[in-house]
Amino acid sequence: MTSDESPTRVLILGSTGSIGTQALEVIAANPDRFEVVGLGAGGGNTDLLIAQARAAGLGPDAVGVANPDAADTVGAALGATVLSGPDAMTDLVHACPADVVLNAVVGSLGLAPSIAILRSGARLALANKESLVAGGSLVLDAAAPGQIVPVDSEHSAIAQCLRAGSAAEVDRLVLTASGGPFRGWTREQIVDVTPEQAGKHPTWSMGPMITLNSATLVNKALEVIEAHLLFDVDYDHIDVTVHPQSIVHSMVTFVDGATVAKASPPSMKLPIALALAWPERVPGASLACDFSTASAWTFEPVDNDVFPAIELARAAGTRGGSLTAVFNAANEAAADAFFAGRITFPRIVETIADVLSQADQWATPPGTLEEVFAADAWARRRAAEIA
Ligand SMILES: NC(=O)C1=CN([C@@H]2O[C@H](COP(=O)(O)OP(=O)(O)OC[C@H]3O[C@@H](n4cnc5c(N)ncnc54)[C@H](OP(=O)(O)O)[C@@H]3O)[C@@H](O)[C@H]2O)C=CC1
Ligand SMILES: CC(=O)[C@@H](O)[C@H](O)COP(=O)(O)O
Ligand SMILES: [Mn+2]
């Protein structure tokens, strides 16, 4: 960016979450480069949202809150009604012209906003991987080339590695996984895992849902689907390796045998800043690796017997249609049941498998968003019944 350019206008959906708050820190550190034009959230933390809106100098017309009661609270504090209700995020996209919209809400409820962002012509800085996994080809069809820029650390890493060669020169994508808090555990050991144990990620501080997904390796399963969709690489050319240090964020192996890796200490500020400024890098976004002291980076295979989620996702993704939406929705419902103490930790992924085994009707490509929503709703119902 040159000094005579105006700042990039950024709208943040999910501003009160882990990604949203880090994005606001990136923006606050670069006021000449970025400007916040709107904020949206669920309504679980009205004090924070009000403080964020005031700090950004936003009026109520640039704020959206899904929960209507929370929206009343936020509106009262900001002096007028804010956008509210289940469509508040898409309404916000329509109300706030932006250059970049960061979709950092959690879950497949991010799908309609992702489509609205793409239709608005803004760049979609995509943290909400569930919207891509659920919407699949519908999301890709709504996007212009290069309009979706990944925020997810692995996919941001792959996008950076791909600068080293052409698409035709790519042999394999290699996603790294931390392995989660139960790496090395047996099937017997994971039976008694509690939500509290599953909420302690070894290397990243993140929201509760993605932290649980990392523990089951469902997060990596969703990321394999995400990588297939974003980079148009077949499932049998996408590998996962367990890298407990979370410093190498993913790799690309090219046809001549070269593997290009992207490394940095675990911080989401780097991929967030890069997605907001894409294709430019933001100086000082994150610390760099320190090679003046000894360190070890290790890689090991995934234990697919104890953690079968990735193999399930490959099978669902390879069969296609809305089965990836079914996978994600079954997981969201099973995760709710686990958090509520109704099922054990291994039953989360077993529930996904059970739901997928009954989901043949959803194997055809969806023609409309409504078909995806129907698959999503069906899978939640089946998962709740099974759980
Ligand atoms: N955290 C991380 O490091 C990473 C996250 N991601 C992905 O980014 C997304 C966000 O994750 P994370 O920040 O950890 O999640 P958090 O749980 O920390 O934050 C979720 C955000 O979504 C908002 N939200 C919840 N329900 C709604 C709703 N109905 N409408 C609008 N907004 C809603 C929450 O608002 P409220 O506070 O009001 O409830 C909150 O702002 C997920 O898809 C995750 O997989 C990807 C890579 C890394
Ligand atoms: C930071 C990020 O992108 C997360 O998706 C992270 O990768 C989760 O860690 P796991 O590798 O344990 O799933
Ligand atoms: Mn990730």
Automatic annotation (TrEMBL):
1-deoxy-D-xylulose 5-phosphate binds at residues 129, 153-154, 178, 201, 214, 219-220, 223. One of its GO terms (molecular function) is manganese ion binding. InterPro entries: DXP_reductoisomerase (IPR003821), DXP_reductoisomerase_C (IPR013644), DXP_reductoisomerase_N (IPR013512), DXPR_C (IPR026877), DXPR_C_sf (IPR036169), NAD(P)-bd_dom_sf (IPR036291). PANTHER family: 1-DEOXY-D-XYLULOSE 5-PHOSPHATE REDUCTOISOMERASE, 1-DEOXY-D-XYLULOSE 5-PHOSPHATE REDUCTOISOMERASE, CHLOROPLASTIC. One of its GO terms (biological process) is isopentenyl diphosphate biosynthetic process, methylerythritol 4-phosphate pathway involved in terpenoid biosynthetic process. It comes from Gordonia asplenii. It comes from the Bacteria. The lineage of its organism: Bacteria, Bacillati, Actinomycetota, Actinomycetes, Mycobacteriales. Catalyzes the NADPH-dependent rearrangement and reduction of 1-deoxy-D-xylulose-5-phosphate (DXP) to 2-C-methyl-D-erythritol 4-phosphate (MEP). This is 1-deoxy-D-xylulose 5-phosphate reductoisomerase. Belongs to the DXR family. It catalyses: 2-C-methyl-D-erythritol 4-phosphate + NADP(+) = 1-deoxy-D-xylulose 5-phosphate + NADPH + H(+). Transmembrane segments: none annotated. Residues 10-136 form the 1-deoxy-D-xylulose 5-phosphate reductoisomerase N-terminal domain. It is an enzyme of class 1 (oxidoreductase). NADPH binds at residues 16-19, 42, 45, 128, 130, 207.
